[in-house]
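All the exercises in this workshop are built on plain-text protein records. Instead of coordinates, the fold is spelled out as a row of discrete tokens. Once this layout is familiar, the rest of the handout is easier to follow. The record below serves as our worked example for the rest of this section.
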Amino acid sequence: MEHRRLGKSAVVVSDICMGTMTFGSQTEEAEAHRILDKCLDAGINFFDTAEGYPVPPDTKWVGRTEEIVGRWMKGKNRDAIIMATKVSGPSHVWFKSPKRGGMTALDGHNITVAVEDSLRRLQTDYIDLYQTHWPDHDTAYDETMETLDELVRAGKVRVLGCSNETSFGLMKSLATSERLGTARYHTIQNNYSINNRRFEDELKQVCRQEGVSLLPYSPLAGGVLSGKYLDSQRPEGARFSRYLEMQGERQFDMAQRFAGPRALESTARIVAIAKEAGMSPVTLATAWSKQNDFVASTIVGVSREDQLDEIFAAIDLKLSKEVMSAVHKVTKEILYPMG
């Protein structure tokens, strides 16, 4: 298992991170604990959650994921675990956090309340990586970064990161931190996969120049790159199978984006490349993400323990130049398959 530094910080993590957003909705606690145990045994020391999990967001179970993770972590060597969580920013696109009556923001009040609640649910004295879940470009950057800096100085948080952020937002935050002399963002957690390489347009250069690490989520493009939606399949219980049946317009649009015709065309070609290389498309997509120099750790997610094996197969795998070139050819010929 390779380990990499988060940005310019002193925190070093495994290059695979286990995401937990299904714990408490799709995945029951006992199964979730088995998944976490198996990851720790395999050498994964980095785990990611959020105050707004599990998904889809719902008041009936919001916060349950952190509670499940907290009960698991309570019996472990805390120093051996790098735990990341997030404070909900204002709602964007399809994700609306039910926390604080849906009135989430990145002001001093919301951040302070959120971190105390997360510490309680996680049953820990500190959070290794605390991230803003969605940007809040309407709240003063000074207030956001000063409040986060107070958490670092108080020892409640070790390092800071952002998520679903833009080039403007990341640079604005970094400039604010530099001007004020506060703690800075060391990571950015954005959607990035073979089917969605938009991060490379601008944010890749920001990360390289400013010493910020990408923590890509959805490296399987929401599970689509596994090939399970090919040939008009709608697997029972799968995320986009459920979204296509939901009444919400946002969920339906998200399913169309991730599992639309162009995304499925790209996926079919990636599945063929994986088959030719003698590996599963899950293994290929995970290894491909890890092989980018601006990536510190790739966030994977499962709802069942038996889904881990294909991910673990990527732990020490380095894709050949031929495979990397074949993947690049697909993404060049089918530009922005997710729109």
Observations:
- The chain has twelve helices and ten strands.
- The first helix runs from residue 29 to 41.
- Residues 153 and 216 are 27 Å apart (CA to CA).
- The chain has a mean pLDDT of 95.
